[in-house]
Write a structure and sequence with these properties.
Radius of gyration: 16 Å
Order of helices and strands: HEEEEEE
Strand content: 35-45%
Shape: globular
Strand order of the largest sheet: 3-1-6
Helix content: 10-25%
CATH architecture: Sandwich
Distance between the termini: 55 Å
Number of helices: 1
Number of domains: 1
CATH topology: Immunoglobulin-like
Number of strands: 6
Length: 123
């Protein structure tokens, strides 16, 4: 008789597998490296619900860096401490009908002790 796995057990196993493969986008701060900051400035008319980022050497942007339920409302900023270096950043928001996301993507260089501000206007 085959044992059935519960949905939570399958979800946990999948997340653990993806994390081991580097799909998370990697750590924002790497031990022993100088630190800077990336600030997402929302100049659009929509709440941003997704911020993904990884250093430029990763093959994926990774998982959402916002906490569950967290958004970046229009006119507001959200900052992330990161190791200095090259970063790929993707931000966006879900459409009301749940059919997808509108996104903006940028590659940027972060310098130690400096704040790199990325404006997202929705276009």
């Amino acid at each position: 008789m085959l044992k059935q796995l519960s949905k939570p057990a399958i979800t946990i196993a999948l997340i653990a597998t993806l994390a081991a493969c580097g799909v998370t986008g990697g750590p924002l701060i790497r031990e022993g490296e100088p630190v800077g900051m990336i600030t997402i400035r929302n100049t659009s008319y929509s709440e941003l619900t997704v911020v993904t980022m990884s250093d430029c050497d990763h093959y994926t942007y990774g998982l959402n860096r916002l906490s569950a339920g967290e958004t970046v409302p229009p006119g507001y900023d959200r900052s992330f401490r990161v190791s200095a270096g090259c970063w790929d950043v993707q931000v966006g928001y879900g459409w009301a009908d749940g059919s997808g996301y509108s996104t903006g993507t940028k590659r940027t260089e972060v310098y130690a002790g400096r704040n790199r501000i990325l404006n997202y206007s929705g276009s």
